[in-house]
Design brief:
The protein has about 250 residues and is of the alpha+beta class. The chain has 7 helices and 10 strands. It starts with a strand and ends with a helix.
């Protein structure tokens, strides 16, 4: 196997209304079935998901959580506003978002956002965002590419943050090995290799977390193109999610 990966250079600071597809297509030559991986930060900026935390009315709940977690009450409030369910209040806020994904601080960022009072929310529907960028890249280049939108996430059970996929278009979500054989002829039962998170992790390594200014990575040479999947495929069904159940019973 051989794949190549590179950052797309000279992407400007993204502003609301910017056309991400166009900015990418002007800076690199895409090929069919390239995997274009974009940090959620720039997608959110283009979609104007920037909020000032100074205008927010603060509830008692947010004040309490802020005290316990040693964070700003405004930030706690912003996280509570985004979550439709709080799974953990302290020592950090863990919430479920409207789109079903569960993340620390609702995926809200302070870093790489202009203005000290401004925060950046995740794209409201990152699958939809990925789909739009994929379609715009097709219009501009005639190439059928896959798009993965990423965010840097912490992990349960392990120290060390990695890139994770938050929205996808034009790519398989998982790879199913069932029915194939191992080196010794045994039939495999591995059903769900989470390929989009594997790709997001590597792309995140090239993007970096700081002032690199490299929010877009292209991975070339892998055959993962598929029209119809979304990030929902990766969300563990509630009735199978023992961790979620355990967290609920903690707070009950
Ligand atoms: P997140 O992982 O999606 O939350 O994004 P990060 O804040 O970790 O940023 C990922 C990469 O994108 C880093 O290389 C940042 O320097 C870069 N980045 C963030 N915002 C912008 C922007 O508006 N323009 C450019 N060119 N790069 C950005
Ligand atoms: Mn982030
Ligand atoms: Mn990051």
């Amino acid at each position: 196997m051989k794949a190549t990966a590179f950052t797309v250079e000279k992407i400007p600071l993204i502003k609301p209304g910017d056309n991400i597809g166009q900015l990418i297509s002007e800076r690199t030559e895409l090929k069919d079935h390239d995997i274009v991986i974009i940090s959620s930060t720039v997608v959110s900026k283009s979609e104007n998901n920037i909020r000032s935390i100074r205008d927010l009315p603060i509830t008692e709940k947010a004040k309490n959580i802020a005290l316990r977690n040693n964070i700003e009450p405004e930030f706690a409030q912003a996280v509570l506003n985004e979550g439709i369910e709080v799974l953990l209040e302290s020592p950090f806020l863990l919430v479920r978002l409207k789109n079903g994904s569960i993340c620390v601080n609702a995926g809200i960022d302070h870093s790489n956002v202009e203005g000290s009072d401004n925060i950046l929310l995740l794209p409201e529907d990152a699958d939809e965002s990925a789909r739009k960028i994929k379609d715009s890249l097709f219009e501009l280049t005639g190439k059928k590419v896959s798009v993965i939108i990423t965010d840097t996430n912490g992990r349960a059970f392990r120290i060390g943050q990695t890139g994770a996929a938050v929205g996808i278009a034009g790519i398989i979500a998982m790879r199913d090995w069932r029915g194939t054989r191992d080196l010794f002829g045994r039939v495999l039962e591995v059903k769900n290799e989470g390929v989009v998170d594997e790709l997001a992790g590597f792309a995140n390594l090239l993007m970096g977390e700081g002032d690199g200014g490299t929010p877009v990575v292209v991975i070339r040479g892998l055959e993962m193109y598929h029209e119809s999947y979304g990030i929902r495929e990766l969300l563990r069904p509630e009735n199978e999610d023992v961790i979620r159940k355990a967290l609920r019973s903690l707070s009950a």
